């Protein structure tokens, strides 16, 4: 089989925010640390993890639209080129596209047609995209508040296809949708991937991700604890590598709804060593200090010294 | 149908307001300690008490207050607002002359405050937290906590008295025949009063616009616009102006009351012969017909401003405009 081309790879990414602590003391709050992911063409990489694990920040970091008080460290490569700030500026809205969550991401006072065109598209391309998603011509002069949920979904998707994006970051594209509409939305993403694009799917809906994704990256407290082929998640805990992934799997309603004690640590009060050790059932002394590097294991990546 | 109903209820509300304001004003003025006859003849005159009584009788000052009010109201319904005691002219004529002068002043101040406030607000909001933002914010706070007439006095001292750049008062040069007065003369006399009057409005609109644009820049649709490759200026042009213009315009029309109130003070400081100045004169001379006329006129003026603001909001905001169609 021909080796598929890597569209995006993120190595040792960390994102921190400059915050004012007590008084005028400045401190850096690290919210993403040691994060590693990669997406190939034709692939959907699902990113799963609870709220506050840094999923949406990753999207902003890839697009280079983090707030001004954020600083980024680590290496991001896009199609073999280092993804610098200038490159991000050049590519976002064209080759790298964001598909946001809801109609709230559209200007409420602007016709959706001209919003889809944006500053980088053309009227013609917009019409082609609308045709692809069966949006009639009247929709062009509608305002966001006049759109139905399904129309809004397709309009947000057309903002991605209009620029011939090669990498699409879909940030929570399904919450609030009925099961049919969610499946429809995922189907559209699958088609976009099958046409050769790389897709990063940030989602809470793990079941849906298991159904449509190719690989799944599990986030915990701002880092990737495991990346594995989707089959491993379908198979169950014995195929998985990291104790947190196993716990996540077992916490799903259809798998017993079993919670593990404790909560995800907040940025600013992260434990030393492995971020998961305070809640880990198999922890040892060695887990509590030093950096735990990511390593390859059985066709996946894991950040755990005990994983087998 | 709905529009007719709206217009009808607005009209009724306006008439009720006029009625209420006229009653309150009337009884406030007649309880004023200033005797209109004394104010009319002046304290230095040697008119006898008998002659004063004749004047009072002629003006109907000895009738009971309710009867006087009803007489005034009856005449008003026939289109007669009475004669001004202070100016010895029909009130309608005084209002007309004075309003034209005031209107120029108020429109100038209104436009200056609107545009200047809007620009300052955008600059301050887009670069919020910067040195420029802090300067603009401080400037606005100082302006909004300073009475306009006091600023007017300062401007007068600095620019008219000390530097001599501008005239100390009036709308036209003193001692020049009316037909010789040029447009430039009028503008020259307008600058300081208009600037004074615009000052309170500036901070209001600037601070409001600042907050609004900060909200817009933090919004999800701006984040998405940036993700689609828009630069900061493109974001401001495409989304910022659009989203802050509606509240700013509404606010500016709704500020007619402050404008009118401010004009009373500003015109007094600069002896500018406008409506506000006439109101002060009428008050000081217990000129009931004129003061009532000015009060009613100001009600109409402010009411019109608010009404326009309401209408514009409906026209400009697509959610109201197109939402009601479907």
Can you describe this structure?
The complex is a heterodimer of chains A (308) and B (326). Chain A has one domain: Rossmann fold, CATH 3.40.50. Helix content of chain A is 27%, strand content 26%. Chain A is built from nine helices and twelve strands. In chain A, strands 6-7-8-3-9-10-12-11 form an eight-stranded mixed sheet, with helices on both faces. A four-stranded antiparallel sheet of chain A has the order 2-1-4-5, covered by helices on one side. In chain A, a hairpin with a 5-residue loop joins strand 1 and strand 2. In chain A, helix 4 packs across helix 5 and helix 5 runs parallel beside helix 6. The model of chain A has no long low-confidence stretch (mean pLDDT 88). With 326 residues, chain B is mainly alpha-helical. Chain B has two domains: 84 residues, no CATH class; 231 residues, MetI-like (MetI-like fold, Orthogonal Bundle), CATH 1.10.3720. Chain B has 14 helices and two strands, in the order ααααββαααααααααα. Chain B has a two-stranded antiparallel sheet with strand order 1-2. The longest helix of chain B is centred in the N-terminal third of the chain and has 36 residues. Classes of the chains: A alpha/beta (308), B mainly alpha (326).
């Amino acid at each position: 089989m021909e080796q598929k081309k890597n569209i995006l790879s993120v190595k040792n990414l960390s994102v921190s925010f400059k915050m004012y602590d007590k008084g005028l003391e400045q401190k850096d709050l690290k919210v993403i640390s040691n994060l590693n992911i990669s997406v190939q063409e034709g692939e959907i990489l699902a990113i799963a993890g609870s709220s506050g694990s840094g999923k949406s920040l990753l999207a902003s970091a890839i697009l280079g639209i983090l707030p001004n008080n954020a600083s980024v460290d680590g290496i991001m490569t896009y199609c073999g080129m280092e993804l610098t700030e200038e490159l991000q500026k050049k590519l976002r809205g064209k080759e790298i596209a964001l598909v946001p969550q809801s109609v709230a991401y559209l200007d409420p006072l602007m016709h959706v047609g001209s919003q889809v065109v944006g500053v980088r598209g053309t009227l013609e391309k917009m019409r082609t995209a609308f045709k692809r998603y069966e949006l009639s011509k009247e929709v062009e002069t509608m305002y966001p508040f006049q759109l139905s949920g399904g129309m809004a979904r397709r309009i947000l998707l057309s903002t991605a296809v209009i620029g011939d994006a090669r990498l699409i970051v879909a940030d929570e594209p399904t919450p609030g949708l009925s099961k049919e509409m969610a499946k429809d939305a995922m189907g559209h993403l699958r088609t976009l991937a099958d046409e050769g694009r790389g897709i990063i799917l940030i989602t809470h809906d793990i079941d849906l991700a298991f159904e449509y994704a190719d690989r799944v990256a599990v986030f915990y407290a701002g880092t990737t604890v495991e990346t594995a082929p989707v089959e491993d998640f379908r198979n169950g805990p014995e195929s998985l590598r990291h104790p947190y992934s196993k716990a996540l799997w077992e916490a799903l309603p259809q798998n017993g709804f079993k919670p593990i004690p404790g909560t995800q640590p907040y940025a600013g009060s992260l434990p030393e060593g492995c971020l998961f050790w305070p809640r880990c059932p198999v922890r040892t002394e060695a887990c509590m200090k030093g950096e735990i590097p990511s390593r390859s294991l059985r066709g996946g990546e894991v950040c755990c010294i005990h994983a087998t | 149908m709905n529009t007719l109903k709206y217009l009808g209820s607005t009209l009724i509300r306006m008439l009720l307001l006029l009625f209420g304001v006229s009653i309150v004003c009337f009884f406030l003025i007649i309880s004023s300690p200033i005797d209109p006859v004394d104010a009319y003849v002046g304290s230095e005159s040697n008119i006898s008490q008998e002659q004063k009584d004749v004047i009072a009788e002629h003006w109907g000052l000895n009738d009971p207050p309710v009867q006087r009010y009803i007489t005034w109201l009856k005449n008003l319904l026939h289109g007669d607002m009475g004669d001004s005691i202070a100016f010895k002219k029909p009130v309608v004529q005084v209002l007309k002359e004075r309003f034209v002068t005031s209107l120029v002043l108020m429109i100038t101040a209104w436009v200056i405050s609107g545009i200047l406030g809007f620009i300052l607000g955008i600059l301050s909001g887009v670069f919020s937290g910067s040195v420029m933002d802090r300067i603009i914010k401080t400037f606005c706070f100082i302006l909004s906590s300073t009475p306009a007439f006091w600023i007017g006095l300062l401007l007068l001292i600095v620019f008219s008295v000390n530097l001599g750049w501008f005239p100390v008062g009036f709308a036209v040069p003193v001692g020049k025949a009316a037909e010789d007065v040029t447009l430039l003369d009028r503008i020259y006399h307008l600058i300081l009063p208009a600037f004074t009057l615009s000052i309170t409005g500036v901070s209001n609109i600037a601070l409001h616009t600042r907050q609004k644009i900060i909200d817009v820049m933090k919004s999800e649709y701006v984040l998405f616009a940036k993700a689609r490759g828009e630069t900061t200026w493109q974001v401001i042009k495409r989304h910022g102006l659009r989203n802050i213009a509606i509240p700013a315009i509404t606010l500016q029309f709704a500020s007619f009351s402050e404008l009118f109130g401010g004009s009373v003070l500003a015109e007094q400081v600069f002896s500018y012969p406008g409506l506000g100045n006439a109101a002060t004169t009428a008050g000081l001379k217990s000129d009931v017909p004129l003061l009532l006329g000015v009060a009613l006129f100001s009600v109409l003026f402010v009411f019109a401003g608010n009404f326009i603001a309401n209408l514009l909001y409906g026209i400009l905001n697509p959610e109201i405009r197109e939402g009601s169609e479907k």
